[in-house]
Amino acid sequence: MLRERLRERLRERWREPGFGLVLVALAAVLPACGTVDAGVRDPDVADDGQAVETGAGAAAQAAELVPLRVGGIEIQVEIADDADERQRGLMYRESLEENQGMLFVYPEQRTLGFWMKDTLIPLDIAYIDREGRIVDIQQMEPQTTETHDSAAPAMYALEMNQGWFDANGIPIGDLIEF
Fold first, then answer.
1. Can you give the CATH number for the domain in which 132 is found?
2. Separation between Cα atoms, residue 114 and residue 87, nearest integer Å
3. pLDDT (tens digit, 9 = 90+) per residue, 67-78?
4. Helix axes of 19-29 and 2-15: crossing angle, nearest 10 degrees
5. Per residue in 24-62, pLDDT tens?
6. pLDDT tens by residue, 135-152
7. What gap in Å lies between CA 145 and CA 147, rounded to an integer?
8. DSSP β-bridge partners for residue 156
9. pLDDT in tens, 119-128
10. Considering only CA atoms, which of 64, 24, 51 is closest in space to residue 149?
11. CB contact at 8 A, 118 and 57
């Protein structure tokens, strides 16, 4: 249900004048940006069968922001819903605006794992199940290869500046609303 609402919101954005041109322009520019670190784990194949992501990635770019509500607080997120976007995440970013983050979307619910190699800023990660309920929140330090596995199966992961969930009183069990 949550995934369908996200897809519908993205479809609505596609219909907006100029949005298709932004995607075409990005498609023309991104190949010139090079590849992500070859040492990054494959997000779909891990030694133990779990999903493992880089957790945060890509140089800052003019990304489309989508509004979400977390525990009643409105935030703006970039969407990472394919393997390349999930692998790149927030890497190489030097900062992240207050109340902005990245939502990682997976095709199925499973144990997820993220690391912070090539990520320059400290982040919190909230793992979210298919119903939109936060099942785990962890703090992640920059430029480390420690894997942060979700405590329960999740379909989504939300990265925010480190301390954001505590500062806003967002506990495990709160809902994400699209």
1. 2.60.120.1140
2. 9
3. 999 999 999 999
4. 90
5. 333 333 333 322 322 333 344 344 444 444 443 333 445
6. 999 999 999 999 999 999
7. 6
8. 105, 128
9. 999 999 999 9
10. 51
11. yes
Alpha-carbon span 137 to 158, nearest angstrom: 9
Residue numbers of the domain that contains 36 = 2-177
Q: Please say if the pLDDT value at position 133 is more than 70.
A: yes
Scanning 50-94, the segments in alpha helix (DSSP H) are 83-88
Q: How many domains does the chain have?
A: 1
DSSP string for 117-139: TT--S-EEEEEE-TTSBEEEEEE
- Find tokens 């989504």 and name the residue: 156
Alpha helices in the chain (DSSP H): 2-15, 19-29, 83-88, 164-167
Tokens of 86: 């999930």
Percent of the chain whose pLDDT exceeds 70:
65
Taking the C-alpha atoms of residue 70 and residue 167, their distance in angstroms, rounded to an integer, is 13
